[in-house]
Amino acid sequence: MRKQKLALTVGGAISLVLVVATAVITATGVGAASRNRQEMLSTSGRLSSFYDKKPFPSDENIGAEEVNKRLFQEQYAALAEAVKTNAVVVEGEHSPGSFRLTCEETISALRRAAPKAESGESVIAPDFYFSFDRYDPSKGGIPAAKGHVPRLLRQLQMVDRLVRTLYAAEVLKIESVRREEFDTGAASSDGEDAPRRGGRASRRASSAADSSGFALEMTPPPLEDAPVEMDRQRFGFVFLAREASLFATLNALNAMWPFTQVSGLQIVKSGPDVVFPAKAEEKAKNEDPLKASGIKAPPAGRTSRIVSGALREAPVKVQMTVDVFTFEKPRQESGAEAAETE
User: Fold this and answer.
1) What pLDDT, in 10s, does the model give residues 165-183?
2) Angle ∠(90,94,98) on CA atoms, nearest 5
3) So where are the chain's domains?
4) Is the pTM for the entire model greater than 0.85?
5) Residue 169 burial by CB count (10 A; 0-12/13-18/19+): exposed, middle or buried?
6) Among residues 165, 135, 329, 335, which one has the least CA distance to residue 235?
């Protein structure tokens, strides 16, 4: 009898534990199911709102976009008109005779406008022809090819502006002026002004040293995929200037219109060395045969190196290449028309 009661007690306890565990598991599952159901209903509501939402913008937004579009078109038109002012417009007849007359008048005006240097001499030589010596009648110049005249006239106007910029900066001397010579050698073998956009332009390499000793690189890289019609002309200058004049030149070119970019700059001192050579070369060799010649003595003390007056700012020789960009379509002539001369 006692064993039966013990068995019933143990069985009842086990059954109670199982019932409690089952109740706990059931309650937990029902709670999780309820939460999942609430999340499902919330997600379904959001998806329904997205599905029922009107996909097109409102009338207010459409009106605002129309106003913005009109403003953008007006600003673009104004910008296009402003960019056109960068073009170097060549008025009048484009003939070899008109170019020769214009060239002589421009060169004469530049010579008359040349200021005097500190020494009292003109900053240019009396017969200076500003890179157009090929067409100088006093040197047996030849007439220009008719197809080259438009570009030559543009180059002439640009040279006039650049040289007057150097005049205004009060440089001491202009030794050399060069331009991108498309009208000589292989570049003009067919007498045609070749296209200058993208990689289609074929130019003669021009980097020979001029009389000043500088090697001016006058062949600019091609304009790759320009978004607008654009033309570029390269010019080179060699001049003497003090520091203030050099910075004035750079600032003026930076503010110049048409847009001008200094693509190369080299500065060489023109004054003597501060450290002077030591004893004579022969005496140095006699003292020490292994000693190299040309060794310079150490500089003098600070009290012996006081510099004043004109020596305080010795002029430097400057070699500068300048690219002038104009937002215009270059005029191109046919080969037959270019070969025609007056």
Assistant:
1) 999 999 999 999 999 988 8
2) 100
3) 84-273
4) no
5) buried
6) 165
